[in-house]
Amino acid sequence: MASLNVGNLGEYLREQRNAAQLSLRQLADAAGVSNPYLSQIERGLRKPSAEVLQQVAKALRISAETLYVRAGILDEREELETRAVILADPSINERQKNVLLQIYDSFRRENGFVPETDETDTADEADETPGADATPGAEHALKADAAKDDNPHS
Description:
Radius of gyration: 20 Å
Oligomer: single chain
């Protein structure tokens, strides 16, 4: 099962490297790993350490966490913990929490992950549902603040 994750990781790394228009040698140099080692990772023959993944992520300018999940080092379910921490943070207001969650979801989608919760879809549907402004919670606060932001005179 681990080799499947490593293969998935290798394919993903190759895609990201190509998108960044880097040769294998350029990425290896930028990440501080050998060219043959990086080639083996991309072909799914080696499982890199978290430290190597972090170096590669930095060189590609992508999230190290994304690589950890692809390599099987980090459980994808930790997304729910991330959401809980954001929602529980007393130092930011509801609008900021929702904006942060939207950005988080967009980064996850950009990196090939579909959000595990339906919160984003529910919020989109609520915009079109009569009486949606009676819905409590983060989605309501975001919509209210977004409406204010759209009108600079309010």
